[in-house]
Amino acid sequence: MTADVLRGSYVDPQRARLPLRSYTERWLAAQTLAPSSRRTYEIYLRTRIHPALGDRALGALTPTDIRSFLRGLHEDLSRLTVHHVHGLLSTILRAAVEDGYLARNPCARTAPGKGRRVTIKPRSLEQVQALIDAMPDHHRIAAVLGAGCGLRVGEVLGLRIGSIRIEEGELAVVEQLQLLPGSPPVLRPPKTASSIRVVPLPQLVADAVVLHLERWPGEDDDLLLRSRTGGCVWPNSFNDSVWRPAARRAGQPDARFHDLRHFYASAL
């Protein structure tokens, strides 16, 4: 014990008896996170980590326990999701070491692989055109922006008219519409700094924007896509009531809006 104190690795046994659940709650409350990240962490903790390990004392966790926990996750989760859950647990336990609750992180050297990257086969020009043609008139511009500028669905729904600079031939992505459970959509900056960008505005897309604004005009601060009442278009409503029916009409029921972004990247 004296040697551990001198080395700086001593851990008070009383602190090591703290249940994992109690420490994770303290840890999460102290973090500065984007709302979407906090929500994801809460889900991983509530549905995966706490049921399996929440009542265990921090000092009682071993690498074998972690590997057994991961083996159970692999039964009904993808390899990538298991990797993310393990990453969260390892981050929390690393913080417990720094806070003096543990001498070492039991997650060390237990990380699962991410699995083989899925090969993406972009949709053809004909398939993308069919998706655009199948969209309702009011929402067709969303698919055009996805395929012609590579915007994500949240970026399209959060795009203000003033961010589209027709004469300069460019479009600024500075906000996205984000939906969190239990609350209405809010406009927020993109999750990463690299997602704030200016992209070229192809003439075909510019013409579609002009045509859209002739039918549904607005001010610079207004959203390009608005609901019938003038508010924002909720992401889940767009996906369920607009995109999926259009994909079925186009004969591509498995198509995701994000496929348009893959098409854009391949076109570049």
Describe the protein.
By secondary structure, the chain is mainly alpha-helical. The protein contains twelve helices and five strands. The strands form two sheets. Strands 1-2-5 form a three-stranded antiparallel sheet, with no helix packed on it. Strand 3 (176-178) and strand 4 (186-188) form a beta hairpin. Helix 7 (125-134) runs antiparallel to helix 8 (140-149) and helix 8 packs parallel to helix 12. The chain starts with a helix and ends with a helix. The mean pLDDT is 92.
Major sheet summary line:
3 strands, antiparallel
Poorly predicted spans: none
Strand order across the largest sheet: 1-2-5
Proportion of residues in helical segments? 40-55%
Strand percentage, roughly?
Answer: 5-15%
Order of helices and strands: HHHHHHHHHEEEEEHHH
Average residue pLDDT = 92
* Apparent shape: elongated
What's the total number of strands?
A: 5
Rg to the nearest angstrom? 24 Å
Please outline the helices and strands:
Elements: H1 2-7, H2 13-16, H3 20-30, H4 35-53, H5 63-73, H6 79-98, H7 125-134, H8 140-149, H9 153-157, E1 164-165, E2 170-173, E3 176-178, E4 186-188, E5 197-200, H10 203-215, H11 235-249, H12 258-267
Antiparallel strand pairs: 1-2, 2-5, 3-4
Helix pairs in contact: 3-4, 7-8, 8-10, 8-12
Keywords:
single chain; 268 residues; mainly alpha; 3-stranded antiparallel sheet; two-stranded antiparallel sheet; 12 helices
